[in-house]
């Protein structure tokens, strides 16, 4: 897979997401479906958006015992999503079980990527609540290496970490990076941001962009601008 822009469709209903996607008449953006939309509408929303020709990153961040994750991944794989994810904190046996669950009888499977440390977790919270006393960036790289060894395809990380992840885990290990804003755009609650062009230069393979597209006056134009800066 080459570089692409994934649109975070953080809507609370099927009606809202269809209203948004219907505006795209010339292209079929790669869509991220997160917990809110999936829990509100169930697996049918995935089937329907897939049927419309969109590729789908199903962002449900699984984290449970290996057997449970393996079985749940089997269900997600049958939905024919293109990318799904889990928490690397579930450790290597959970990640290996997830891959087994995802693999279809014909040997194909969706890409599987790991969340390392959530970007909402800072050094202080990690030390206080998780008793992890290593520097945060070292923890992120260690989780990425563990995911790589378990056979996963990549990680979700900040575009600021993409270059280092590639250095440590290899150029073919995918970096999927949220935290993207246009140069003059509103940052919202994202603290460490990059523009699509900067994310490209930093080595991101996929950028995940939500509000700069979904809340834009002209979402199609905003999407095209992301593609022009990041892909073309
Ligand atoms: O609207 P915005 O561009 O900030 O959306 C970013 C998307 O990426 C949201 O769906 C958010 O949940 C997700 N995400 C993130 N940071 C992470 C992991 C996921 O912003 N570390």
Give a concise summary:
With 232 residues, the protein is α/β, with parallel strands linked by helices. The chain has a single domain (4-230), classed as Aldolase class I (TIM Barrel), CATH 3.20.20.70. It is built from 11 helices and 8 strands.
Can you offer a commentary on this structure?
This protein is of the alpha/beta class. The protein has one domain (4-230): Aldolase class I (TIM Barrel). It is built from eleven helices and eight strands. The protein has helices spanning 14-21, 35-41, 44-51, 66-78, 91-102, 123-130, 136-150, 159-169, 196-202, 211-214, 219-230; strands at residues 4-8, 30-34, 56-62, 83-87, 111-115, 154-156, 174-177, 206-209. The protein has an eight-stranded parallel β-barrel with strand order 1-2-3-4-5-6-7-8, surrounded by six helices. Helix 5 (91-102) crosses helix 7 (136-150), helix 7 packs across helix 8 (159-169) and helix 9 packs parallel to helix 11 (219-230). It is globular and about 45 Å long. The two termini are 15 Å apart. The relative contact order is 0.14. The protein binds cytidine-5'-monophosphate. Residues 8, 10, 34, 118-119, 156, 178-179, 188, 190, 208-212 line the site of cytidine-5'-monophosphate.
């Amino acid at each position: 897979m080459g570089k692409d822009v994934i649109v975070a469709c953080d809507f609370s209903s099927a009606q809202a997401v269809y209203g948004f996607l219907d505006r795209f008449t010339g292209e079929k953006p790669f869509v991220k479906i997160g917990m809110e939309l999936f829990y509100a509408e169930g697996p049918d929303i995935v089937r329907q958006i897939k049927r419309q020709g969109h590729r789908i990153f199903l962002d449900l961040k699984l984290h449970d015992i290996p057997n449970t994750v393996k079985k749940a991944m089997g269900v997600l794989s049958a939905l024919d999503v293109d990318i799904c994810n889990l928490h690397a904190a579930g450790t290597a046996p959970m990640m290996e079980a997830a891959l087994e669950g995802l693999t279809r009888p014909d040997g194909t499977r969706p890409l599987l990527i790991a969340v390392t440390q959530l970007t909402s977790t800072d050094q202080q919270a990690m030390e206080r609540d998780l008793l992890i006393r290593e520097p945060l960036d070292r923890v992120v790289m260690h989780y990425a290496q563990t995911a790589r060894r378990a056979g996963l395809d990549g990680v979700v990380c900040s575009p600021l970490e993409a270059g280092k992840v590639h250095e440590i885990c290899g150029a073919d290990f995918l970096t999927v990076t949220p935290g993207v804003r246009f140069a003059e755009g509103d940052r919202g609650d994202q603290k460490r941001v990059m523009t699509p062009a900067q994310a490209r230069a930093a080595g991101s393979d996929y950028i995940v962009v939500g509000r700069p597209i979904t809340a834009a006056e002209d979402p199609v134009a905003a999407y095209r601008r992301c593609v022009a800066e990041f892909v073309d």
